[in-house]
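re: ur question from yesterday

yeah so i grabbed the chain u mentioned. its 310 aa long if i counted rite. heres the sequnce exactly as i have it in my notes:
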Amino acid sequence: MITIGIDGGGTKTRCVAVNEEGDVLATVTVGSTNINAVDHATVRERLAEAVVTVLSQASAEPGEVAAIGLGMSGVGRPEDARRVRQWASEMLPRAYAYVDHDAAAALASGTGGDLYGVVVISGTGMIVFGVDDQGRRRRAGGWGPILGDPGGGFSIGAAILQSITAATDGCGPATALTARVLAHLKLREVNDLIAWTYNQSGWAHVAALAHLAEECAAERDEVAYHILAWAADNLALRAETVIRGLGLERERFPLVLAGGNLTHGDLLRHLLTLRLEEVAPQAEVVTPHLDAAVGAALLALKQAWKEKRE
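ran it thru and got these structure tokens back, copy pasting raw so excuse formatting
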């Protein structure tokens, strides 16, 4: 039998097919399936495309799918989760369908499928999500770039751009970020950033600059360092809110650091870890050892087993 896992993010959606031994048989990537950012018809089409393609690559039939787990951004409301579950049931009527927030899938990717602990995610955006041993949930962040995702990639990229314009105006310190960003984007001068910034839709192009802060901070650029320290402080503040809200500050629990800015950003991860050790000294800080789509598949399997036993 096959289990399908989907990690539906704001930028892209990954879909995997996993066999009974936990081996990944096929992986497919399609566009964003955030139902708050993409129209519902497109989301459904992309999910169907992902499922059909991954089954084809795995040489499997729809009837072989025992369960499908969908970790989807934008399904915080019950009616949205029901809508996605209905779509999954229409695509795979014989499969058990489990729908949860994409942060739940990210947490499971660091715990081997267990929905217990806290995950801090810094990708294009950010969110902190936690579940205690009684199943109580708490989250902080995840409001989007305008309402507030401090510590996410967009906020770091925006801080980089703002530090460059401040330095150009003479009201902020000079920074190596100016030359680094212009070279990275193949632009001639700072004024060219205006067209680059505003002539593109979405947030991903700004978030994609975040890694340049890591590069310049490693070369002792103080502006870049302070941007990452600010990001770490904001991530830590929201993590502390979730940890204390669940009463986990003195407990031993998995504390998963996920998202590209934390899995690939050594300084941001280090600064955040130092702060988190003060808040929850017994927590075990871990990096996800599974793809979040695999985490979604494991969640679906475990939930299906649980319901069968009950």
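noticed a couple things. The first helix runs from residue 40 to 57. also Residues 26 and 56 are 9 Å apart (CA to CA).
anyway ttyl
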